[in-house]
Fold each of these.
Amino acid sequence: MLRIRQDLVDEIVAHARRDHPDEACGVITGPAGSDRPERFIPMLNAARSPTFFEFDSQDLFRLYRDVDDRDEEIVVIYHSHTATEAYPSRTDVQFGSLSPDSHWVLVSTRDPDEVEFRSFRIADGEVTEEPVEVLAASPLSEAAPESSPSQ
Amino acid sequence: MAIEVRIPTILRSYTGGEKAVEGKGDTLADLLGDLDSRHPGLRGRLVTEDGGLHRFVNVYVNDEDVRFLGGLETALNDGDSVTVLPAVAGGSR
């Protein structure tokens, strides 16, 4: 089961819409061992493709170093499919098997009005869909846009 | 000549759960051969049968991807740090 705040779901969907028709990708990190997604980190799709995504290798290195320094883990790895359903492809399964500890979140932007948001576990070449529980946005993230500029 | 090699979670079954191991070698290929003598099978997860680096992993010497250095022939020096990370990629095809 993936438990994720509404504002983080919204961030993922907004990123996917923004990069459509190319695939969008990124991660959400959280405290190590918590399985709790907290910090939204959109990544550049180095492939800039409507059918493929990959993290730039230098960005990936910096991401892992940052996650280590903050004592975090990569809780969610997300990407979009822009013309097909939000279900892992064969390529997703190959790469997803390397990160079995992360929730593999897929969104589809094939329909401009409807959002498909699904989460999977991928391990040893096996895909298991899991339920998604969406939590209320945290008070902090709601307050942020309303706070006045620094004085 | 000791070189620290950082191992990702997915490959720690080859290192008895260790996050980092030490090895030696003048090139990355030598280092991987040295590591494989103590952690059998590890090399096979990083190098293809054709002798190239696997597309599913990224290998860095210090903070440079070895694909932009000399690949498996990248020269190593005492005190260098090698990092292995699983590539993050996929897509609808």
Amino acid sequence: MKTKLILTIIASLVTTALYAFDPPPVGSAAPDFSLTDPKGETHSPSQYKGKYVVLEWFNPECPFVKKHYGSGNMQRLQKEYTSKGVVWLTIDSNAPGSEGNLSADAASKVMTGWKTRQTALLLDPEGKAGRAYGAKNTPNMVVINPEGKIVYEGAIDSKATPNPADIPNSTNYVKVALDESLEGKPVTTSTTKPYGCSVKYK
Amino acid sequence: MRLAVRLAAHAIVCFSIFALESQGQSQTYEGKQLVKAELLADTNAVVPSKPFTVGLLLRMAPGWHTYWKFPGDAGLPSELKWKLPEGWKIGEIQWPIPLKTTDPGDIQTYGYQDEVLLMQEITPPASINDSTVKLAAEANWLVCEKICIPGNASLQLELPRSVTSVPANAEIFARYRRLLPRDWPGAIVATANWKRARSDLRLNVKSPTLANYPNVDFYPLPQGDTVVGHPQLESRSGNEIVFRVPLESVSKDLSSIQGLVVFAQRADGSERAAWQIPTSGIAPVKSTASIPARGIFTFLLFGFLGGVILNLMPCVLPVISLKIFGFIQHAGQSRQKILRSGVAFAGGIFAWFIGLALFLIALKAAGREITWGGFQFTNPYFVLALSVIVLVFALNLFGVFEISLPQSATRGVLGWTGAQGDVGSFFQGVFATVLATPCTAPFLGTALGFAFTQSPVIILSIFFAIAAGMSAPYLLLCAQPAWLRFLPKPGPWMLHVKQFMGFLLLATLLFLLYVLGAQRGLEGAIWASCFLLFVSIACWMKGSFIVATTSVAKRFVVFVLMLVLLIVSGVYFIGGKFHSTKLASANSQLHGDWQAFTPERLQTELEQGHSVFVDFTAAWCLTCKFNEASVLESAAVREAFQRHGIVKLRADWTNGDPVITKLLQQFGRPGVPLYVLYRGKSEKPIIFPELLTKSIILDKLETISRTVASQ
């Protein structure tokens, strides 16, 4: 058990080093990380092996993030898929002092105020998880399958605008990827160009 | 001083804005003005039908930026939606060269700081009713500093209608026009080559201009669903620079992307210029194996002779006399009636061959639409496919296996020929040709393969010639039945002719292997040959184990075994070994005093005042080989080149080098051969005909030296 953990850590370190800032390609093993939520509990993708995991990069100040939360679109997705057993991890990788960085208190407030429905909102002020996944935008979406492989990464949907009115007319790539995966089908659109604000790294 | 000029210019701009009554709008955020947007025109009035330029001027607060057409890792391109009156036309946004910014986390974005003018050409209709024109547009942008704020404005531009106009806002339009990327310069100044290596694209730029700029970068403009990573500078030396562009989306057949090669004198990019990567030049050319206009007669002659030879094949020759005797009997010795039957019979033959040609043309047209990858000799897989066809038919001629028509087809055909008169003769002509397929297939198949690279007109002409050749004996003998006695009698000699023809096909195969060798090196030729060996074994299996009496079960087993053999050897030798062989170096064709052609080389030689002769050639181009052997390498021509001090460069197009493709296109040629003599930087190059003779070259060289001497 211990050796397995060590191997995983070494593997993730190697992966992190290899793909310094480039996103790991679809089909490769999802890099592991360990982050805490506002309550101080730690979460990592490896602990959810056997389940589908969604990673969502977050910045409450970003107009593109507000587009999906203000319209209730993101909360609906979170609710629908967490009820189907999918683990949804929202990650804030913005550095302290920059726009969008959240303290534990502020994060709890955003969650209750916005009525979010994710499994956990994780704080990544060092930007470790964000860099491991090459996440450059908010929102930036990743879907990991139960075997721990990345099956989707990129934008949340097909209309790269900050305008909530575009949501009904766009294709939600994350929804499609999850629906296809849950039906046991391969993901048709597995890589897209994410859009949004840049992640403010340290 | 400079500041004063700039202030003055600024004042003029402000003044003209007022004069034009343009209404600017501001985007404010927490009481601070972030972006000021307004529309400008480069004219003081609208003249019907006369295009002018409008521009969206965005002025950003210090530290804030808006984005380029391709924003990079974050951001959105600015948008402009025009509401124009009926009949007005608007062009694409002309994006000035952006600045690249890299933020922590390796976030690269392309955008504009302080100020940008997004220009568009606008064309008014021929008649304008109103005396004042109102042009309205909705602008959308995303402006970012640490945070990003979307902004928008409804803007309007009012211009009087007039019969004449003078330029307005000249300074700012001129400034931003200078910042527009330029079209790619000619291949002599700079070349851009794309190569695909797994999930990376490599862009190789060669140009003497590169040496003047310490900072050279590639800004990608991916289209559609393409997702690219950050372009990396892979290597840089002197006149050559290589960028690596990782592809993150799964686009298998992408071989190039659009983008800009950006030059800057200073690292902050303040003095920048850019060239747009040409993407059209990289597309494969359509027909490549060109036939010179005069050469087409040679091909027609060969087609005709081939058609005549078809009559000597074992399954055709006995038919001739039988047919003619049949016509004679039906016609009751009336010369005219015999001739008419003969003509109808020949008509049937023509119908069959022209049908084949049309089928081939249709197939080719369909192939072009779904882009099978180009049926051309620059494609080694096309050459390989042709080798397989030629080998299989050679084996057929040697008697390793037989090509048999299904029995039902044969019976049906015989039933149809029952019709009497000229119609009957016509169909007999068609069916005699169809029934002769087992003997004619080896030649027709080969001809079909080669004809695939040609234009529809040439395909039709060649097949017409074959039909003419094949029907010639019938026509001749119907006109003069007495000549029947000159017809050779069928006998074992026909088998010898057939087998001898097999060797001709093997000779063709050798030529094709030579081409493969030139493209993929000795190794490539050997791996291809290994596959051909297994193809031969499969043919032998069909010939040895499948005869007319073979049971269905056994047939099935043999076919499955053949298929397994072909697939396994195909995957191993072609999919694996052959596929991984590298492109043979272009210098394989160099010998003697010829030197490798590169656009830079040509440029340097011309700058040094030398005349340069360029031989555009390819290993598979027979006309090229003929010209080289009989003219260019002849003692007289070599001596003349030397005497006139002409530098000889050879441009090898065996593998379809895109730089050479582009040059060929500039000369309006679909392929090689092409012979060009450059006499200096300013002189127009002299183009020689495709079929060279010694006297053409020698005479031209004499005239040139005489004009030079008289100047």
